[in-house]
Design brief:
Arc Repressor Mutant, subunit A; 3-stranded antiparallel sheet; 3 strands
Length: 254
């Protein structure tokens, strides 16, 4: 076999056949083993030997082997249970005058090919490691974002309403026991949106939600749609924000 010409012919042909990286690595690996075996027409190779040398996974190896056989690059056959298959590379015929006889050149080409196989295997391992690292970083970043959006209602009060005294703290705690924390936070946000920076107004909103059996933010949104529809269909019967605030004040005086 003319080693150099086989490699050149392989690269010329692989552009037309669209070989995958795994198929290229496997072909070079089999060329390496054929060279070590003195270019015998057929060689017996265990799958473990090919996997170690190529750096491929077992599934990638089997898939690449099947594709190379279908595309006419090699043949292989099993000889019995628990026995290694026999491989044969399908080579290109060249005139005898073109046959490479320089053993030193053959060794150099083999070294170069081995480096290329090792480099490709290393690149595959690095790509897998980079993908795993990126996946972990993305997961960690998402967790950080979620944690950052989860504010404690007591902390939210101090950051947006003012100093948290024991009475307000007890009120917030009591509401957090009766309603989900996300609803307590939402009620406090709405109080700020209506320029009512005190927790009693938030409590009035929570009482209305509690009376309607609201337990989630989705149910709050549904209730908001219902209120908006009532404002459109019967504006004279719909309570305004000031009416709600007046109702809260009356409840505080009782």
């Amino acid at each position: 076999m003319n080693y150099i010409k086989e490699i050149n012919a392989f690269y010329d042909r692989m552009e037309l056949d669209g070989l995958t990286t795994s198929e290229i690595v496997l072909w070079h690996t089999l060329m390496h083993f054929h060279n070590k075996a003195g270019w015998r027409e057929e060689i017996t190779l265990a799958a473990t030997s090919i996997l170690v040398k190529s750096g491929l996974t077992e599934s990638a190896f089997k898939r690449a082997r099947k594709q190379l056989k279908e595309k006419g690059y090699l043949t292989f056959r099993s000889v019995g249970k628990n026995q290694a298959p026999i491989y044969q590379l399908i080579t290109r015929e060249y005139p005898e005058s073109g046959r490479l006889t320089d053993e030193r050149a053959i060794r150099q080409a083999d070294v170069q090919m081995t480096k290329q196989v090792d480099q490709q295997a290393t690149e595959q391992m690095n790509q897998s490691a980079d993908a795993l690292l990126k996946q972990k970083e993305t997961k960690r970043d998402k967790t950080t974002v979620v944690d950052a959006t989860r504010k404690n209602p007591h902390t939210f009060y101090e950051q947006n309403f003012g100093m948290l005294n024991p009475h307000i703290a007890e009120s917030i705690t009591a509401w957090c026991e009766d309603m989900p924390e996300e609803l307590v936070l939402e009620a406090m946000k709405r109080a700020l949106q209506h320029n009512k920076p005190f927790f009693q107004y938030s409590g009035g909103i929570l009482k209305r939600w509690q009376a309607r059996g609201v337990k989630t933010l989705e149910e709050v949104e549904s209730l908001d749609l219902e209120v908006r529809w009532s404002l459109i269909s019967k504006p004279e019967e719909s309570p305004s924000v000031d009416d709600i605030f007046e109702e809260v004040r009356r409840e505080r005086k009782r």
